[in-house]
Amino acid sequence: MNFFLTIILDGLIQASWLFIVALGLTLVFGVLKILNIAHGSFYALGAYIAATAVTMVAARGLPPSVGFVAMLLSVALIASAVGLLLERGLLKMFYGRDEVVLLLVTYAVFLILEDVTKLIWGVNPIYATQPYELFGNLEFAGLYYVGYDLVLIPISAAVGFAIWFGLNRTVIGKIVLAVIHNEEMSVSMGVRVNRVYAIAFAFGVLLAALAGALTAPKISMQPGLSSDVIILSFAIVVIGGLGSVEGAAVGAILVGLARAASVHLMPQAELFMIYLIMAAVLLFRPEGLFKRETARRI
Amino acid sequence: MDRSWRTNCAVIFAATTSFALAAPASAQDTFKLGIVTFLSGPAADSFGVPARNGAQFTIDQLNKGSVPSPYEKVGFGGMKIEPVIIDENGGATKQVQELRNLYQRDNVDVVLGYISSGDCLAVAPIAEELKKMLVLMDCGTPRIFEEARYNYVFRTAAHATMDNVGLVRYMKAKNVKMDTVSAINQDYAWGQDSRADFVAAAQQLYPNVKVQIDLLPKFGAGQYGTEISALVGAGSDVVYSSLWGGDLQAFVLQSVPRGLSKRSQLVFSAADHVLPPLGDKMPDGTILGARGAYGLMSQKSPLNDWLFKGYEAVNGVYPVQAAYRITQSILGLKAAVEKAMSKNGGKKPSTDEMVEAMTGLEWPSPGGLIQMKLADGHQAIQPIAISRTKYNPELKRVDLVDIQYFAAECVNPPPGVKSIDWIKGGMQGAKCD
């Protein structure tokens, strides 16, 4: 029993931060129809900004809790600004063009951001471990877990719920959904679609950066951080269905649990497991588990 | 008259030219040395940059003639060394192209470097094809010379077999209990070969040992929560790892709060380089190697004092394994070049002359005597030290205590035997003090 509880908990810890990243990716695709290759770079950007904030706070002798709050606030502010700047200054010039063009534009942004992080933070690994000790340790299923890892699960659930609630239970959310369903009709109804695009993209960037910030205290930040994340988050949104919040949640949990189970039961299959799930889902549900129904246009 | 004057001029010019070509190397001559090390990417901080700093320090000291005996001669046989340093980051395909560029575009005399096993396996055949001398300064995998024969390629450091045999010999000597062992290593040449050597050596000296958890996460995984759960859950006597750099640091940072070091004896094969950044986060009592008798485990000698103190003065941190390895590589190349020059009348040696001189060469280094004894004189063996960690609150650094040294022939296979076969055959012929 303990063994299976361990697998579930390990899987949920893994799924928690993956879900936040994938949520940003799926939101941007749902609204703007952009497969954002640069999404992993925003995750890396968030991690680096968080590390800087934590280090600055620690250097002033302030407690780790201050560092934790500082890293979340600084990432929220900077990532939102970067998102808005990119959407308004670059992406909007390419709306209406072929999707492949936007794919290439975001790939260019990915390459630029890779070099920007090297330029600002250098090439050596950096650390920001102080917040990792913030929540102590907890014994569960016969093993000690770091409290910080466990706290990521409710944080992730809260973020997911907030996004779901915002989209489904608020006026702004309804407007965003309207744009997702039918952009032309939304424009004719007086919706400022450009503003919706800007907000949605900024939110997507913010979510990726937030995931980076939350994982920063337990990893080493180094070049190449973004590549792995983009592969994993794409796998999740493909499994869950592009543009679906529920799909991102289920996809993240599936990937997290599959990875945890394979490490515990069949370590040699760990790298292959994610792609196995992806292939299995696409075989039976080519558009993912939670692909939105779309009205046929006449 | 006119024709004879021209003829005389031509004769004088030809004689002068041939004399110049045959003249001993002078201070005007330079030796162009291509150096390849990680300047970016995951391996830069742990290995690449210390290696570059070590190379710059050593070359600078050699060019000034400030290195202790027997290396007091300026540069290489009086020739100033001109380094061309490039980044090893970017993968094996890129490195193959960069190696060609170094030889064919930059016209370097020798290329020296490489840290990644994958890169070493990729570039060695290219140097052989081009008939250019290549000195590999690191790389862990024994496969380079055990799966191929090279004339122009050398490795001036022992391979990973030494690290793992040394670790197991140390554990046996210190009566470390190992009825069960679990392992976590990166899923590429270095990790796979290290794991195979350690498990094979453990099965020789601990015949009843059982391997419990055997994990091979991908290189650069960074997050090991699930793996740590599996390792803690198994509760093996020993947890072995050849993780390095950012991966090892992340593993230590994530596993210590979860009690892994309390439940199992941690054993790391190449961990000295993470001690400065980790500080008190590294648990006391961890058994570790440094891929040689390097850094805090180095033995006192004029050469070691020169490197340790000099490097620390320049870089503000003591030298770890990569700085030692590149220094011993450069000193070995210097010894080979000067040996070749002593045979050819003091001229700048050709590639073939350097290759001949380097084959089977022995030279003293800050980390002990290096002997090119394996792979027909192309693969080095060297002594190794293993120790335990102990945090020193006064100096605010991790000290290494309970150090034990093993002679090169105690922990390296004899010539003509594959490492894994030697280990599985009971390490026959090992000469341990």
Oligomer: heterodimer
Structural class of chain A: mainly alpha
Terminal Cα separation of chain A, in Å?
Answer: 55 Å
CA-to-CA gap between the ends of chain B?
A: 79 Å
Mean pLDDT over the residues of chain B = 91
Instruction: Report the C-alpha radius of gyration of chain B, rounded.
Output: 23 Å
Give a quick account of the main beta sheet of chain B: strands, pairing sense, barrel closure: 7 strands, mixed
Structural class from helices and strands of chain B? alpha/beta
Residues in helix, % of chain A: over 70%
Compressed to H and E, one letter per element, the order of chain A equals HHHHEEHHHHHHH
What is the general shape of chain B?
globular
Instruction: Count the beta strands of chain B.
Output: 15
- What is the 3D shape of chain A? globular
Structure description:
The complex is a heterodimer of chains A (298) and B (433). Chain A has 298 residues and is an all-alpha fold. Helix content of chain A is 72%, strand content 3%. Chain A has helices at residues 2-32, 39-59, 64-89, 99-121, 147-169, 171-181, 183-188, 193-215, 225-240, 245-265, 270-284; strands spanning 137-140, 143-146. Chain A has a two-stranded antiparallel ribbon with strand order 1-2. In chain A, α2 packs antiparallel against α3 and α10 (245-265) crosses α11 (270-284). Helices cover 43% and strands 19% of the residues of chain B. Chain B has 16 helices and 15 strands. Chain B has helices spanning 2-22, 44-64, 92-104, 117-130, 143-146, 160-173, 189-205, 225-234, 245-255, 260-263, 275-278, 302-315, 321-343, 351-358, 408-411, 419-424; strands spanning 30-37, 80-87, 110-113, 134-136, 153-155, 180-184, 210-215, 238-241, 265-268, 287-289, 362-365, 368-374, 379-381, 384-392, 397-406. In chain B, strands 7-6-8-9-10-14-15 form a seven-stranded mixed β-sheet, sandwiched between helices.
